[in-house]
User: Fold this.
Amino acid sequence: MYAIINDRGMQYRVEQGQFVDLALCDAEPGSEIELANVLLIGGTTEPIVGSPVVAGAKVRAHVVGPVKGVKIIVFRYRNKKRYRRRTGHRQQFTRVKIAEIVTS
Assistant:
């Protein structure tokens, strides 16, 4: 069984036991969070589509901790002006492990 959830404007397809990198939040490592914005539940005979969310459905997840994403190189360049700037950035995420998908 899988679910499509919405967390801070981003949609994720999650299954039980999967690790997901969500936007950085202030949850403590080892704590449990509930994601209540479940848009769709599938994997059964007929998918359950919410309008806009599935009533009574939620996803429970355990917080593993903060992680950093891959490095993104930002390069600014102006031709014929000798202007070159190279900077990098690593986005921070909160890694969670999906414990269970609860339906009503």
Remarks:
- The longest strand covers residues 58-78.
- DSSP finds no helices and eight strands in the chain.
